[in-house]
Amino acid sequence: MGVIAMLIVSLHSKLHVMFALLALMSGSASVAIADVTIDACVAENSLIHPHLAADMMSLNGFCSSVGGLIGFSISGFLVHAIGSQGTLGILTIPSALVILAGILLKDVHIPNFPYGQVRMFSSCCLRSDISTLFACTKFSV
């Protein structure tokens, strides 16, 4: 999702503002999905190795912060060196690396997984979220 969105923004020279906004939002969503996936892996490994839980979470936050600082630091230089569209084209690299990591990392298959319980729990959470949203809108009016 992020690779395609960033390629569209970087390669299309006369992209309509709404389509560019949607592409940038989908690129940000792909980064958020990757971040949540990494957090889930850290949480899963924290259950397996509870004595390392705090260290894994700290390392995750540290790496994310350092990556953000490096990205913000070099973005200005890249815009001057290769232009704004070229810089947006470079943003396809992290999304491509997430796809590569997803292909290379093997996940354990769990036979007879109770998908019905997950669906029931998800629908219960969705109903709760919607009722909270409507309760908040009543107070804001």
From TrEMBL:
InterPro entries: BT1 (IPR039309), MFS_trans_sf (IPR036259)
Keyword set includes Signal: yes
A single GO cellular-component term on record: membrane
Coiled coil: none
Membrane topology, as annotated: Multi-pass membrane protein
Keyword Nucleotidyltransferase included in the entry's annotation: no
UniProt-listed Gene3D superfamilies: MFS general substrate transporter like domains
Signal peptide range: 1-30
Segments passing through the bilayer: 58-79, 86-105
Cellular location(s): Membrane
Keyword field: Membrane, Signal, Transmembrane, Transmembrane helix, Transport
SUPFAM superfamilies listed in its UniProt record: MFS general substrate transporter
Superkingdom: Eukaryota
Family membership: Belongs to the major facilitator superfamily. Folate-biopterin transporter (TC 2.A.71) family.
PANTHER family linked to this entry: FOLATE-BIOPTERIN TRANSPORTER 1, CHLOROPLASTIC (PTHR31585), FOLATE-BIOPTERIN TRANSPORTER 2-RELATED (PTHR31585:SF6)
Protein's recorded name: Solute carrier family 40 protein
Organism: Triticum turgidum subsp. durum (Durum wheat)
